[in-house]
Amino acid sequence: MAEEPQGDARHLETLDRDLDRYSSLEMATSYVSRPMVGPGIAFVFIMMAGMFAAMLFGQANNSIIVIVAACFGAYMALNIGANDVANNMGPAVGANALSMGGAIAIAIVFESAGALIAGGDVVSTIAKGIIAPESMGDAQTFMWAMLAALLSAALWVNLATWVGAPVSTTHSVVGGVMGAGIASAGLAAVSWSTMGAIAASWVISPLLGGLIAAGFLWLIKSRIIYRDDKIAAARKWVPVLVGIMAGAFSAYLALKGLKKLVKIDMSMALLIGLAIGVVTWAIMIPTIRKQSEGLENRNKSLKVLFGIPLVVSAALLSFAHGANDVANAVGPLAAIVQASQSGDFTHAVNIPLWVMIIGAFGISFGLFLFGPKLIRMVGSQITKLNPMRAYCVALSAAITVIVASWLGLPVSSTHIAVGGVFGVGFFREWDAERRIKNARLAMPDRPSVAPEERRRRKLVRRSHFMTIIAAWVITVPAAAILSGVIFLGIHAIMT
């Protein structure tokens, strides 16, 4: 009789061990499966895009290639959300003006609104005239080339996101179109003057963005931060800066983001920007005065005054990005749809609403599932940002696009925004060195900083800088080579 309790105890002990093992297995399964949730949801979205295209074109000619293209377009849109949108939201998150969740929510709303409301205007023949469409011979070859361009661009942006490098999705599409065009029709099919202008934008975009961002940071430092009465200086200059921001973004959106709704030339866009900028400046004078009441005379207090303008600028950048870059990215899909329906592949391409919907939803899913990595990279890992510095980056993005449009230069929103971050960081390094030299002149007996310590104090991470620059330089050739290989593979399979 005494052995039964011992047997029960042993049985319970064994059961506890089994339950512990089961619990450990459950935790391990959860840990292993968590990284697969994002790709799983992305895969479902890609399949749904294909099914949607099958419902629309299931009985049409070339339905298979349209369905495959819809899947590739959805994959491309996911990668835009994961990579490109970080440029708009990264500075605001890095400056702690927005939480990661808040940034993602705002970006989803405004990117989708930009794509669906103001996006989808006519895209010029085959990605802005990169190649001559008539050189491809027939619609079938053209559709294969656009399919290769779409897949190669998506694969390249996916790889760049995995590495942690923000790259231009538009340049990726351009490279893809060029590579497929060369593979199908030879080097003579490429418009090398257009490609030369795009190559020039690799240098022009980040330099313009960096110089303008650095210029505004110098203005903020010299007119506000380095003043004895910082709050009084802020009351004078913050309304001016917010007015400049409102005017710049109004002109930017009028010029670039509302082309589908109404055609506005440069002079009219600048007049609209000037009017809205002046009105905003007048409104902000009493607003900033009230907001600054009771603030202490220190730099930390100034961050409060830049928080809301920074959030607004991030939202407006997202709207403009959705209106412009999404159309470029899904342009090859729209071209395939048009060629499959009418056989016409030599004229301008209108982007159908369902293609823009795939683009808008894909961006939202890509940002939500994979965006935080690049948002952290742009916002905090290149250089340290606060609301004033992030504000300079956002403002430079709008102004640079306007200046480039006025000069007729092709620019990349990615290169501008990241160039602005670099510009802010390098300006801070220069300013710190300048102040150290001035302090040494004022106090000659002060010990100098060792070279190793000075290198350690660099305010821009050189490893990230070199990775991003390298990714920018090789984006077009890498996407082109990948696209050419994919096109030859498709051609070999289909013929």
UniProtKB/TrEMBL annotation:
GO biological process: phosphate ion transmembrane transport
Keyword annotations of the record: Membrane, Phosphate transport, Transmembrane, Transmembrane helix, Transport
Residues passing through the membrane, by range: 36-57, 64-82, 142-165, 172-192, 198-220, 232-254, 266-284, 304-323, 351-370, 390-407, 465-494
InterPro entries named in the record: Phos_transporter
Cited Pfam families: PHO4
Gene Ontology CC entries for this record: membrane
Keyword Transmembrane helix among UniProt keywords: yes
Coarse class of the protein's main subcellular location: membrane
Keyword Acetylation: no
Subcellular location: Membrane
Record's bilayer topology term: Multi-pass membrane protein
GO terms assigned for molecular function: phosphate transmembrane transporter activity
UniProt record similarity statement: Belongs to the inorganic phosphate transporter (PiT) (TC 2.A.20) family.
PANTHER family per record: PHOSPHATE TRANSPORTER
Protein name: Phosphate transporter
Organism: Litoreibacter arenae DSM 19593
